[in-house]
Amino acid sequence: MRVLIAEDDPVSRRVLEASLKKWGYDVLVACDGDEAWEVFESGDGPRLAILDWMMPGLDGIEVSRRIRKQSNEDYVYVMILTSRGQKQDLIDAMAAGADDYVTKPFDAGELRVRVRAAQRILDLQDEIIAARESLREQATHDMLTGLLNRPAIIEALQRALDHGEREKSRVGVVMADLDHFKRINDTQGHKAGDTVLRESVRRMRSVLRTYDSIGRYGGEEFLLVLPGCDEDGAIALAERIRCCLGEEPVRLCRNSLEVTASFGVTVVEGCRGQTADSAIMVADEALYLAKERGRNRVERARGEPAGAC
Ligand SMILES: [Mg+2]
After folding, report:
1. Architecture of domain 150-300 in CATH?
2. Among 86, 174, 218, 299, which is 20 to 30 Å from 121 by CA?
């Protein structure tokens, strides 16, 4: 763990630095408050700061206040070091955002356990953040394919539509459905079905542009959001995906399977203020048409056959 020491007294600074290094910490040294603040202002400050109270320029209390004002995801644990030992001093230091308070001359054993306590709190905070991130990931993503799940892709579509309305730009919306997927599950088993889903997703993603979004809308149904795409562009992209899916069979443990998909395409014009639900409904109708007209094809919303691969 990196630790910043800010102390203007050279003797005390050296002793602190030597002790912390001996205990295995990575030490950064500042000779006054201004120097300490520069480190945190750069955005790459350490998670633990041991600040002397009385320093030329900014004092430790002011540096502590400024650290707290920064809205930073990574919590900085602040320890104030001072020869001022009155109760009111402690209250002032804590009120300025300090987490702990050590009086000088410091006792090495005491400082060591206090730094360890700081480390425990910082580790706990990291665990909480990691757990929160993992929950967010689980709440918005489909576990099998790693794609956005249904609520998350609908939200992404609505965001793209709102943005399109503001920017007066179009958004392509594609509903894709793997053909006869139930048959794969029924005859090859669900494990094979999962492999087909994952491989199909990999192929679809390889065709998409970095700013497109794709989500698992249902079992074998996918919703694609293509910002800035006109109808021809959206159809061309759907055709490329269709070709990529059918290009070579998906390899399973013992055999391999031809996989195809049907696509319904619609484009929402920037000015119409359409909702995600209505765009999905139109793309879904086009998809239905593609299924009806023999599958493994792309259909546009008004039902005219789209260009071939
Ligand atoms: Mg001092």
Report:
1. 2-Layer Sandwich (3.30)
2. 86
Residue 177: left if φ>0, alpha if ψ -120 to 50, beta else—which one? beta
- Taking the centre of ligand 1 as the mean of its atom positions, its distance from the CA of residue 93, in whole angstroms, is 15
**Per-residue pLDDT reduced to its tens digit, 260-280:** 999 999 999 876 667 999 999
For residue 45, what pLDDT is reported?
85
Q: Is 35 a residue of the active site?
A: no
What helix, strand, coil percent values describe the chain, rounded to 5? 50, 20, 30
- How far away, in angstroms, is 115 Cα from ligand 1 center? 20
DSSP 3-state of 176: strand
The DSSP bridge pattern shows strands 221-227 and 256-257 to be unpaired
Residue among 220, 221, 231, 258 flagged as catalytic: 220
Place of tokens 């090495």: 108
Instruction: Tell the CATH superfamily of the 2-139 domain.
Output: Response regulator (3.40.50.2300)
Domain boundaries, the chain: 2-139, 150-300
d(C-alpha 254, C-alpha 256), whole Å: 7
* C-alpha 209 to ligand 1 mean position (Å): 57
Distance 109 CA to ligand 1 centre (A): 21
Q: What is the pLDDT of residue 271?
A: 64
Residue 256's pLDDT is 92
Collapse the DSSP code of 83 into the 3-class scheme (helix H, G, I; strand E, B; otherwise coil) and give the result. coil
Which residues, given as ranges, of the chain have pLDDT below 70? 271-273, 303-309
pLDDT tens for each residue of 25-74: 999 999 999 999 999 998 888 999 999 999 999 999 999 999 999 877 78
